[in-house]
Amino acid sequence: MTAQPSIDTIAAIATAPGRGGIGVVRVSGPEAGTIARAICGQPLTPRRATYLPFLDGKGEVIDHGIALFFPGPHSYTGEDVLELQGHGGPVVMQMLLTRCLQAGREVGLRLAEPGEFTRRAFLNDKLDLAQAEAVADLIEASTEAAARSAARSMEGAFSEAIRALVEQVIHLRMLVEATLDFPEEEIDFLEASDARGQLDTIRTALGGVLAQARQGSLLREGLSVVLAGQPNVGKSSLLNALAGAELAIVTPIAGTTRDRVRETIQIEGIPLHIIDTAGLREDAVDEVERIGIERTWEAIGRADVVLHLIDATDYLQHGLSEIDDAIDDRLSGHLPPGAPILRVVNKIDLAPAVGAITFGGNRPHVVVANGPNPTEIWISARTGAGIDLLRHELLRVIGWQAGNEGAFLARERHLNALRSAQSHLDLAAERADQQDKALDLFAEELRLAQEHLNSITGEFTSDDLLGTIFTRFCIGK
To answer: May I ask the CATH class of domain 226-303+305-397?
Structure first.
């Protein structure tokens, strides 16, 4: 991408709001050196930390701190950049930013917009778009695994994988276009250049990248896990067991939970947003419970996974109740496409006699069943029996692969682009298998696949998309 020079200089507080030991004000643009001389009272040696007083317009000291000046293009944004590191009180930071704006009034200094520093880094070829997004993902990472994955993407691992795919597609396109340009050669292109074999290699490589991106998407977004079932089956107890803390009120009274209770936990680095809901039943005792049940179904409609809890004592004595059977049927029709249901049979500690026979000494295990719910996990939320097994099954049903160190912290737009590229490569394979071997259609599918791949790194990106991406960054980044 060609660098786009900025006509103005921008400034912002680059550290989070609130009090801290250190705060940073960042300035970027052609007048950063002018601002440095006005505030520091002297020119700064490039890339060398200088401890000095920061001066206001009257020459009085605002604070003492460290000033760093990075001449472009060897800076984060590719422009001249000034960083002023002072004490991290909000008043001090605001005074320092105000002083920067006063000193730069005549040269057009203005406040930076959200994400504008990183946007300039992208426009000046310091980062591609996937790397720029990884900067925000690293800041927002909620787990250590997500942070490590974001750091890999920021360093360019994801971009390198995409560029390798693009180069393979370009090579294949070049051969196709050459054959289209010289039809008189009567060369059987598909056989002479092993185009089908090359295409299969690209499709396999793309499948691997997509799999890694899916894993990274789990790390970034996490999963919404809804606990559903009749009143008093132990949903709140299970939330507490999974979270390892007493978050929800637990009583023997049916219908204790009237509204959603949400807690985020980690399993192998994946954020799981566990949502405890009001018990599902037709005969709500009052208006509050009725509203709570409506909100339960709303949460289920947005869930990635639903845990349908059933009371073990009732289940073992009477089988699946009519109410639970109805819940099963309604869950299947209410969930988003592809969202799995795990049937969790709770309170096995209350059925020890039956459990000694069925579970082998009350040990929980997975029972493979027939019908729409192929997996049941038998647990005791009160004693913790089976909780580790439930955690394992949650990861299994979402497709998480343990020890996946190479995951790219992908966003939904990355997954959509990879899926679209995969679809066009599949269509190209169909063209190659047709008897007429329409090379012009084959070439067009390759071109479309390349465009979708390039959109990930920003080779072909609309200004509207850039605006959407960078305005979600924090100010100062």
So the answer is: alpha beta
